[in-house]
Design brief:
This protein is an alpha/beta fold. It is 55% helix and 11% strand. Strand 3 and strand 4 form a beta hairpin.
């Protein structure tokens, strides 16, 4: 039983004895005592004044005195206005540490057969360009959210929707057809997604040149865009694809296969994976079926040009295009089809879309449209909306080729980790194979932690140099602390130290040691909060606080050189459980921690 629960029950007993009243646990407000005050937990008494009919100070004093006399858990108390600060007995911390030590999966809830099923969609790449820094944040958030949900006992299906059709895909295809001279990934030595991305950028370059030439002839920008032969050819290619023209479909398949091979390498390097991948080329038809059904049932309407729309003004929104005049579908159509197919495939309890906050309106509309179409799951969709990620030098633009490529970024992070680790002497005395593994672990850990420690709702700037610092709130700082503890535990084993099954309860603990046990105990509620609030950054905040507190303890107190045997054993068990908690917390971020460094 958690200390908070024990305290709640004790306070309920105090209120019953002192005031002859019964209260629910939900009425007992306990919080961690602020650092400037003495105590571990603070009872807020203001909600109890109707029962006590006394001042906040009197109420806190009476409850505190009763608990100090009657409860073996309470060692001391003090009152600050209406706040009752409670100090927990040292023996309780020793027992609590032993309990956590006996439960290696403390903080994680096992997944049972009857657990609710959460489907998490993330990544959602286009097959006309490689993954970039924006995709990195999306993939890392989606993967971490999936792991946090699973740690909360949920069944999780990780899914990806690949945008493999549409005008943007045709732009790359047309550019390759016109200027590619038969280039392949093999002939160029490039990853397929990079090769196709080059042609997407080339199309934009040629298109701008065409517009500039037309405008030089006196056409306005709008007129030039309407006159563009290049864009018309791209639209014609899309029409041919939707009409199943054999040559167009074969070209599309060949180029997409190149991209998928490239994506797979990037995903493996990043450490993310999917249980099910959907392709918009397979789902857009299901979406068109639903839109046409909605049109037939009078839910939607057709304009004079043949396009199909939804009138959402009754919901305080505007009119939404669902099918273009030429019959081709839009993103919304595809998402309707994908949602229907997913709920056909899985008994989903909650569907979560990990998509940037520029799509907030899109998912608001999707939820309404699915509800209009009669799908019960429409209203329950969750948009895990997150902010944009930029570099210190500003925004990125795919069409102009000014993006930070995910593969290049990861390679740079690993190289920087190697260089920094060597400068600090952290790779001395280990093999080349170990040095390579540690550099990869540290480089990717730095990237993942720096991105995931930020509240997902916030925009962020990714600074590669800052992220790889071995001091401060960074992945390498946390990884190094884990390695430091493992070194202590190895030395203890070399000295033949074996921790007893039962620790001495009367061991004299410092405030720092009690605070560390309290922090370890908070891992479970933090994991639960991160899952219920869909906020994975809470894990990052927690593990950094734990590591910071442990390093202060390590600096101030001896461990192996401690002469008091029971105290030495306690500190070893404490260190062991800090390392285990670091490992579990970082695993939720997809980050490995080294045994030595």
């Amino acid at each position: 039983m958690r200390i908070e629960q024990i305290l709640q029950e004790a306070v309920i007993g105090a209120i019953s004895h002192l005031y002859g009243a019964g209260v629910e646990a939900s009425q007992i407000t306990l919080q961690k005592t602020k650092k400037e005050f003495t105590g571990h937990y603070t009872l807020v008494t203001f909600s109890l004044l109707k029962i006590s009919r006394k001042s906040p100070e009197q109420t806190a004093g009476e409850i505190g005195a009763w608990l100090a006399e009657k409860s073996p858990v309470i060692a001391a108390y003090n009152v600050i206005k209406g706040f009752l600060n409670l100090s927990i007995a040292p023996t309780v911390w020793v027992r609590l540490l032993q309990d956590m030590d006996a439960e290696p999966q403390y903080g994680f809830t096992p997944v049972t057969d009857d657990a609710p099923l959460f489907m998490v969609e993330y990544s959602s790449p286009n097959t006309n360009k490689p993954l970039h820094l924006g995709h990195v944040r999306n993939n890392l958030l989606g993967h971490a959210l999936s792991e946090v949900l699973r740690a909360n006992g949920k069944k999780v299906v990780k899914t990806n929707i690949v945008n493999d059709r549409g005008i943007h895909i045709c732009k790359s295809m047309l550019a390759w057809q016109m200027w590619g001279n038969g280039e392949t990934p093999e002939s160029t030595g490039k990853k397929g997604d990079h090769l196709i991305g080059d042609y997407y950028v080339l199309f934009d370059k040629k298109y701008k040149e065409e517009l500039a030439a037309l405008q030089a002839q006196g056409f306005s920008k709008e007129e030039a865009e309407a006159q563009s032969l290049l864009m018309e050819e791209a639209r014609e290619m899309l029409r041919k694809w939707e009409a199943h023209d054999a040559a167009t479909v074969n070209l599309w398949k060949m180029m997409n296969d190149w991209v998928y091979a490239g994506f797979d390498k990037t995903y493996r390097q990043m450490g993310v994976s999917f249980d099910k991948i959907y392709y918009e080329s397979q789902t857009y038809l299901a979406g068109k079926e639903e839109v046409l059904r909605g049109l037939k049932e009078g839910l939607f309407y057709r304009k004079g040009d043949g396009s199909v729309w939804a009138d959402l003004t009754s919901c305080g929104l505007d009119h939404k295009l669902l099918l273009r005049a030429d019959g081709t579908s839009v993103y919304m159509t595809q998402d309707i089809g994908t949602a229907r197919l997913r709920f056909d495939d899985y008994p989903i309890d909650t569907m979560i879309y990990v998509v940037g906050n520029e799509q907030n309106y899109h998912f608001q509309v999707l939820s309404i449209l699915l509800d209009m179409l009669g799908f019960e799951f429409g209203k329950g969709l969750v948009h895990f909306s997150y902010g944009m990620v930029e570099l210190p030098e500003g925004k990125m633009k795919s069409r102009e080729g000014s993006v930070v490529d995910a593969d290049d970024l990861m390679a740079e992070m690993i190289a920087t980790a190697r260089e920094t680790s060597q400068e600090l002497g952290k790779l001395e005395g280990i093999s080349e194979e170990e040095a390579e593994a540690i550099s990869r672990m540290v480089g990717l850990g730095a990237l993942k932690y720096f991105i995931l420690k930020v509240d997902p709702k916030k925009n962020m700037t990714f600074n590669p140099k800052e992220s790889i610092d071995f001091n401060g709130n960074t992945g390498p700082f946390i990884q190094y602390t884990h390695a430091r503890i493992q070194s202590i535990l190895r030395k203890a084993a070399e000295q033949g130290i074996i921790l007893p099954e039962a620790m001495e309860l009367s061991v004299p603990l410092s405030e720092k040691e009690e605070g560390l046990v309290q922090l370890l105990a908070e891992f479970s509620p933090v994991v639960k909060q991160a899952g219920s609030e869909y906020n994975v950054s809470l894990i990052g905040n927690y593990v950094y606080e734990l590591v910071k507190e442990y390093n202060q303890f390590y600096h101030d107190y001896p461990i192996l050189k401690e002469e008091h045997t029971a105290l030495r054993n306690f500190r070893l068990m404490l260190s062991k459980n800090v390392a285990l908690t670091i490992k579990k917390a970082m695993s939720l971020f997809g980050i490995d921690v080294p045994e030595r460094m």
